[in-house]
Amino acid sequence: MIYTVLWGLLFAGLVGFYRVVMGPTVPDRIVAADTVSTILTTFLAVLYLLFDDMVFLDVALAFAVLSFVDVLVMAKYFEHGELHL
Length: 85
Prior knowledge:
Layout (H helix, E strand, L loop, with lengths): L1 H21 L3 H26 L2 H27 L5
């Protein structure tokens, strides 16, 4: 059952990545990038369930925080054209 979930997440990530690359507008690409990062975080959490190794949860948590900041930076950059951090 876990392998089916992993394959489903992999397929959903590939579809999302296609939208990141071929998205018609920049906001579509930003939303797709956020979706792909959420799917990858879920993928890492399911890998924790499969292997029972805490390192997967640690990486998933760090990746979730970094991807949240990444989406905020991308949105601010594409809205204003420059970054004033």
